[in-house]
Design brief:
Nuclear Transport Factor 2, Chain: A, 4 helices
Length: about 140
Amino acid sequence: MTEDEHPARAASHRSMDAVGRKARDEWVALFAEDGFVQDPVGRSPLDETGEGHHGHEAIGRFWDATIASIERVEFEIHDSFASGDEVANVATILAHLPGGLLMRTDGVFVYDVGPDGLLRSLRAFWEWDRAIATIAPTPTPPDG
């Protein structure tokens, strides 16, 4: 993965950092007032209309309905492609769920940033059924 500084890549890192620290208000504030989240893109149980979550209030409700219930989130960035005002991160999200469960979400996560450094959008391309099928007990590290 390239570490070249790019405004959208930097914004994506700020977003992942805030999620990893469970900093809800900080994460919402990373978005422009008219910014939006589509996670995942299209219709899903997280977005029945498929139109995304627009504006700070809706983005905050998205957090409350999804991220808030995750005990810990880790991001594994496999590659990152910055172009124009956007970056597409090829990544795996490890969501540590209540009850000692782990869900792996493989996808492409696209961040669009404005000239003010705020996110205009976060569009996450991943497959609901594929991610849900990965839910399993968190592996126990070997003794050593």
